[in-house]
Specification:
The chain contains 14 helices and 17 strands. With 427 residues, the chain is of the alpha/beta class. Strands 1, 2, 3, 4, 5, 14, 15, 16 and 17 form a nine-stranded mixed β-sheet that branches. A five-stranded parallel β-sheet has the order 9-10-11-12-13. Helix 4 crosses helix 7.
């Protein structure tokens, strides 16, 4: 018997109305009509509302283990589901870092117990032996924060990781430039939050990306560049895409904000890489040049976010604001809905080789979200499920949001209420 039948679903880009039959966690049938004799445990008539694949975020920081006072796999996954995400991939810079096989397995055990959605893990960097052992555990990628290493060490790490055949995911900012610029900015008394942008200038990202491309060419290494924040970086990567396997993501905060946001939100808008000046920042019309959108969901406590320009923590929660921000632009006619499906569903699955997700296809996991394109409101962090109760998008008007999240055929969010569920490792 069919477990769930969704009737009158509008799917894109075809803009056709179909019925979707779900059985044993999978989409078993997509058809324009359903036999009246079909028996289903639950039938929902969506009345031609738009259905997308469950969103995939390949860049989150759930802080678990080690800093669960900021976020945990339970609250992080609830936040994701509330925002329309059915799959996330967590970054390795937890406490301790996920850079050995033992720690990787420990994080998996934690996520298996707490996460209500499916998940993957990026692996951190340690010894050559650790990298080889980690590669056997099917990490989504290896992650390097380039601002933490010298060029000589980076060359060594690129070579070791290339031998594993795994994707290398990068935070691209140059160590020397940041150290020099930060020292200079800290000499200014009572520096305002915008000084943080000057301390980690656009040049630090650009130079770092140039180095990464060169190291990748030498080692035939596939790259994924996280949170690209400058227009010049986009140009460099587009040129490199003709020569090597390299993809890039943009975050909503780099897409919709710039350094003037510090005037309103102060250090609550502090993040790495920082918000850029109007002369450097990403523009919405460039969205089609990116391979994917990722939130870089990085929550902290309010206390940690309000300790001044230099001591405040860097990071913004983004799982519950991304979709309404983007759907608002769809309603304004600035972007097309199929672009959201491509950047938040299809391409993340392709880039990180996630099986059976990212598409509405027969035989694929029944990970789906239902949209109400007419739903209006103001972004309110009090309604977040994340522990990070702040956002530089506070009180921003939106039009359009998800109203139903389905994970492998199970309804896990309905009208802002998040239900219990059991997530699994995706690889």
């Amino acid at each position: 018997m069919t477990n769930l039948l969704l009737k009158n679903c509008k799917i894109i880009p075809e803009n056709t109305i179909v019925d979707i039959q779900i059985e044993d966690n999978k989409i078993i049938k997509i058809s324009k009509t359903t036999p009246k004799t079909l028996q289903a445990d639950k039938v929902i008539d969506l009345k031609e509302k738009i259905v997308l694949p469950g969103l995939i975020d390949t860049h989150v920081h759930f802080r678990d283990p080690g800093q669960t006072y900021k976020e945990s796999w339970k609250t992080g996954s609830q936040s994701a589901a509330h925002g329309g995400y059915t799959t996330v991939i967590d970054m390795p810079n937890t406490t301790p870092n996920t850079n050995t096989a033992k720690r990787f397995k420990e994080k998996q055990e934690i996520a298996n117990k707490k996460s209500i959605i499916d998940y993957g893990l990026h692996a951190g960097i340690n010894t050559s032996k650790d990298i080889k052992e980690l590669s056997k555990l099917k990490p989504a990628s290896f992650k390097i924060f380039m601002d933490l290493y010298t060029d000589d060490k980076l060359k060594e790490l690129f070579k070791i990781i290339s031998d594993t055949g795994k994707i290398l995911t990068l935070h691209c900012e140059d160590k020397e430039i940041i150290e020099h610029s930060t020292k200079k900015q800290k000499e200014v008394q009572n520096a305002k939050p915008i000084a943080y942008t000057k301390a980690r200038p656009a040049l630090a990202e650009i130079i770092s990306i140039e180095k990464a491309i060169q190291f990748a060419k030498e080692n035939k290494q596939q790259l994924h560049i996280c949170h690209v924040s400058t227009r010049k970086s986009v140009e460099l990567i587009k040129i490199a895409q003709k020569q090597i396997k390299i993809t890039m993501e943009v975050t909503p905060h780099h897409l919709f904000l710039d350094s003037t946001s510090y005037n309103t939100f102060k250090t609550k808008a502090k993040t790495n890489p920082p918000l850029r000046s109007l002369s450097d920042n990403i523009k919405l019309e460039q969205l089609n040049e990116f391979n994917s959108i990722a939130t870089d969901h990085a929550p902290h406590t309010i206390e940690e976010k309000t300790e001044g320009t230099w001591n405040s923590a860097a990071g913004i929660p983004g799982l519950e604001t991304t979709l309404p921000l983007l759907l608002t632009e769809v309603n304004k006619g600035n972007i097309k809905l199929d672009l959201i499906q491509e950047k938040l569903c299809e391409n993340p699955a392709k880039i990180f080789n996630i099986p059976n997700k990212g598409f509405i296809k027969e035989g694929y996991d029944a990970d789906l979200i239902v949209l109400n394109m007419k739903l209006e409101g103001k972004i309110n962090s009090d309604n977040f499920y994340t522990k990070g109760k702040y956002t530089p998008f506070e009180k921003r008007n939106y039009k359009g949001d998800s109203i139903l999240t389905i994970q492998k055929g199970n309804i896990i969010v309905e009208n802002n209420e998040v239900y219990k569920n059991k997530g699994n490792y995706i690889y």
